Amino acid sequence: MGERERAVGLHRVLDPPGVLPQAAHRLDPDPAIGPDEVLVAVERLNLDAASYRQLRDAHGTGAALRRAVLEIVETRGKMHNPVTGSGGMLVGTVTAAGPDSPLGLRPGDPVATLVSLTLTPLAITDGLARWDGASEQIPTAGHAILFARSLAAVLPADVPVPLALSVLDVCGAPALTARVVHAHPRTAPAAPGRVGEVVPSVGGAAGPVVAVLGAAGKSGSLSLAAARRAGAGAVWGLVRDDAERTRLEAAGLADRVVVADARDPLAVAAALGAPADVTVVCVDVPGCEHGAVLATAPGGTVVFFSMATSFTAAALGAEGLAADVTLLIGNGYTPGHAELAFRLLREEPGIRAMFPAGHP
């Protein structure tokens, strides 16, 4: 097999042949690595929010949930939820790195993968015995394989591992949000030394209005902060209940916080009151596509980050509403995404309060 095929992990695909690892039904997690691979001793998995919610709703917590996750990994050689099509990410310690690996990792490095578990060869050896099922973070033991085209970040020393994992799991959302806002025609170029500050544009127009659905979650709160720094004229947060509104208002990350069921298009539009220029969807349940489209102004942009999104529903819903909006799929990777997310965590006091209890 050629170097290009190995770089993307084609040699690890067992079934069906010829597809890339993410699309494969089964991968080979053999710990014997090739010259361009990296072996990681797994210490913790982080299931993505949509996958964890689906598995928990189907199996509850405890032994049944552990069995369900173990069966997926043992059957597929990766953590790839067949219902949601999503996975998550992991943290661990590098145990071996092939001499031709371009990732720059060395044995002993504490790392988090920045690619999905749906394409990462994985084996679990402890039966998930230490996981109570109450959180999407799973303490475990096993090993994973990184390819030449994989992404991983060495964990920062000043951020506790559970919190770092939570941040890295969603770091694509604030980075792409910042890119979209920064490129918006209503965003003024920042003056020298004021990068990320809101500066009046030519003619006095404010920057774009950004609405985040699911704003009290991990990706939502980071996206609010990123939008403001990128030059948004106003940032609105939509949450599901009064408890989330109280938390988000206390964090000071949004100019305005409203409550609505993101699955109810008319309720979303009514709660926001006016359409946004950019709408960012960070809700971990299905059925939020039409509300996001209806909440967005003509010529605006909707960014979907939830793995619960039906992109067919989004596209056909926009067509059915005669909505002239751009629909973007957040793919989880934007250059510099990990660095931006940690910078927001360190510099925005309200961010840490929005992460789940137990992630210090």
Q: How would you describe this structure to a colleague?
A:
The protein has 360 residues and is of the alpha/beta class. The protein folds into 2 domains: 153 residues, no CATH class; 182 residues, Medium-chain alcohol dehydrogenases, catalytic domain (Quinone Oxidoreductase, Chain A, domain 1). 32% of the residues lie in helices and 22% in strands. The chain has a 6-stranded antiparallel sheet, with helices on both faces. It has a 6-stranded parallel sheet with strand order 11-10-9-12-13-14, with helices on both faces. Strand 12, helix 9 and strand 13 form a beta-alpha-beta unit. Helix 2 packs across helix 3, helix 5 runs parallel beside helix 6 and helix 5 packs across helix 11. It starts with a helix and ends in a 7-residue tail after the last helix. About 4% of the residues have low confidence.
Instruction: Note the gap between the termini.
Output: 45 Å
Give the DSSP E fraction (strand runs of 2 or more residues). 15-25%
Strand elements, count: 14
Specify the overall morphology: globular
Output the CATH topology of the largest domain: Quinone Oxidoreductase, Chain A, domain 1
**Pairing-aware structural class of the strands and helices?**
alpha/beta
The total count of helices amounts to: 12
What is the succession of H and E elements? HEEEHHEEEEEHHEHEHEHEHEHEHH
Average pLDDT reading: 92
Give the count of structural domains. 2
Instruction: Report the biggest beta sheet as strand number plus sense, adding barrel if it closes.
Output: 6 strands, antiparallel
CATH-assigned homologous superfamily of the largest domain: Medium-chain alcohol dehydrogenases, catalytic domain
Tell me, what is the CATH class of the largest domain?
A: Alpha Beta
Question: What low-confidence regions span 5 or more consecutive residues with pLDDT below 50?
Answer: 191-204
Query: Which architecture name of the largest domain does CATH use?
Result: Alpha-Beta Complex
Radius of gyration: 21 Å
Sheet with most strands: strand arrangement: 6-7-3-4-5-8
